[in-house]
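tool_log.txt
---
The assistant was asked to compare two proteins side by side. It first ran the structure predictor on the initial sequence, then on the second. Raw inputs and outputs are pasted verbatim so the downstream comparison step can read them without reformatting.
(1)
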Amino acid sequence: MEELKKLVQIIQKRGASDSQLLNFKLKRPNKEYSLFEGLASGLITNEEDAISLLYPNETSTSAFKMVKSRLRKKLMNQLFFLEFQGNSIKSSHTLEQECLAKLYQARVLVNSGAYDLALPLLRQVLSTAYDFDFNDIASLTLRSLMHAYANLGERSLFYKVNNQLQELVPKLSADQESERLFLESKVELNHSISSRKNHLVNVEVVLKRLEGLWMEAQSYNTFDFYYLLSIWAKELSGDFNKIVELTNASEELLQSKKVNPERFDHRYNKFIQVYAHLRAKKLEEGIRLASLYESSFNPSSNNWFAFMENYTLLALHAKQYKIAHTLLHKVLTNPFIKKITKMAQERWSLFEAYLNLVAPQEDKPFKWKSLTQNVPSYSKDKEGFNVAILILQVLYYVDMMDTEALEYRMEALKKYAHKHFKDSFSERSRIFFKLLNLVVKADFDYIVAQKKGESLYHKLQNTNPPGDAYAEIEIVPYEHLWELIIKRLQLREV
């Protein structure tokens, strides 16, 4: 059933369901139609659901197996008629599918002896393949042309195509080797923590080879494999300055058309470029780039919301709170926010809360009571930003000087820290928790808290955020939060 569900999802996403192969509307609804509709609507999730729906008064499964087999065959045939159009599909993917479809048609004609009919199709495919560096498709097309010309007795054209194929061999060989090296790295980096660590030690050798292949072949595939693995490896090792350099250089290559603009994923490069500036603390430049790149993302897409997270974090980290409020308003008033995941929506709620803590708007008071009472201290579905929730709650009660509520929250902090902050990557959170505890012990006396927390504060300043790509990013840097606490405690005593 999982295979059928995936096929239904692909066909629904790509459309073309009105072709003769799958147009159930032309006939009275049958078992195949019911099975398709059940899978598409989510009414059917397993075989038991399907049998219960299709055969409510029977227990035999033999008939169901036949229906499932017939539907699978139709769905597989439907793959020939899918539409690869729209904003979510790269134009190069559309062209690649069109080339493969025409190549298939041409091969049918060649195998049927209709060589003259195949030639126009093969020439079209070859032209597109050259324009977009589809070297594997170009190779197959040239070989088909050789068959056609040989059988048509076109001697000069045969040798011309033969020479073109020989010229393509080095590029094709480089593409294949770079693909193999990239996929080997992907397998190792995804396998386990130990295999990832072992492979990262040797990944520079792989990258040098990939870069050499790109320099020699100058094909898009060799560039793309080098580019993707470079970003991935640097991200895993926390070298975000290198990612800044790589994405900047890639943007320049794109502008100068030294990489194919139709195949290069410029949105991904822009996204990673802005993210790398955030992690490398190049905040002002990151904000400038994010402002330029925002229009590259469709506000109805998940990618836009992900991009806006990095943009908002850049503004928060740079203390550009006016920009952060503008961005937050833009996100929260976007009607498509209801379509992103619940986890992503809750992250935006946290961003809003932190921003209103560090830069409240007098004309738009934030409903703190609802957040501090309704958000649990820790929850499995909020794993990944529990620290941010706990710290936010403590900061709120520090601001309110609510000792009773603080005692409860500090106890929760202690338990959470004891359970989760044993590894070195939690060092900054551990230090900040100690600073928060000092405020309570100092009975909100800013002079005592500032004096006793001085060494911890300096230690915090000298402790870098975790470099791991999957580490949680501080919504507002802990240094800024500590400065805010001291300032507000001081104002209360004036």
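(2)
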Amino acid sequence: MELRQLSYVEAVARYGGFTRAAERLHVAQSAVSAQIRALEAELGLALFARTTRKVALTPAGELFVARARRVLAELDGARTEIHEITSVVNGRVSLGATAALGPYDLPQALARFRDRFPGIALRLRSGLLTGLLGALDEGELDLVVGPLYADLPARFDALPLVDEQLLLALPLGHPLARAGRLTLGEARDEPFVSLPRGLGLRWILEDAARSAGFAPRVEFEAAGAAGIRELIAAGLGVGLLSRAAAEDAPGPAVAVRHLHPTPVHPPIGVMHSRDRPLSPAAQSCRHHLVEVAGRRPDPSHRTESGPGGGSAGGDAEGGHLP
């Protein structure tokens, strides 16, 4: 069995006939027919039911084509990766990231990128999103990973990486912890723990509470998601946290409940400046970050999140970008 035989079978199945397949493959029809006949003889069964009007896959042919497509897809993927390694052998990528990235494991993604492209030097800067986007404008950074606000300026291109969900976090044993799905209004009389006023998660809390018909009584403020969780675990109030911050991150145990409606949480994504073309190294890094997230890279896509999105994981940013 040869790879070209797999390609010929797949092409005949795709284009519905030997003539069209041969035209697309730029080979003689006789060559396609001969190779498929040889393959069928090797397998001991027919892959195509041939009539004077059409060519159709047999049941065995359908199974074979499905497997052949997987093999050919793996081969194409291997060719792409080899091309990346041979064409992007060196360079430098300066990356910025906000402190809270939900379930996206940036350190692991960068470790895998370094293994994949050992000749590319990586530099990572952490900070607030506004400052990092300013560094993109100045050309100090190539890429930024952080929350994708709805009003992200059009001069930045953005691709989503992961979505996140907001939950109500409560002290263990709290009466509301025994309830099922809650509305935020049911917690209107509770003291809240959140970020300082004007920052991302605080903005989301105030906006969601306003929609529920009340103003939250924030008695304790923390600098980030970890601090919010610690204060809630100590019994000092309730608060909004991302699922990753409440359940996956290390820290004291808290109870969590789903809210209905769920407060809007902006996705985490990767951004770059439209005014500066990405270097081959930066392009490879951007592609890798999206690939690790399980998304299909689409250079023409620009995401939009819900109104006034902020970093629910604790990024110290306002609800809107400047």
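---
observation on (2): DSSP finds ten helices and twelve strands in the chain. Residues 11 and 25 are 8 Å apart (CA to CA).
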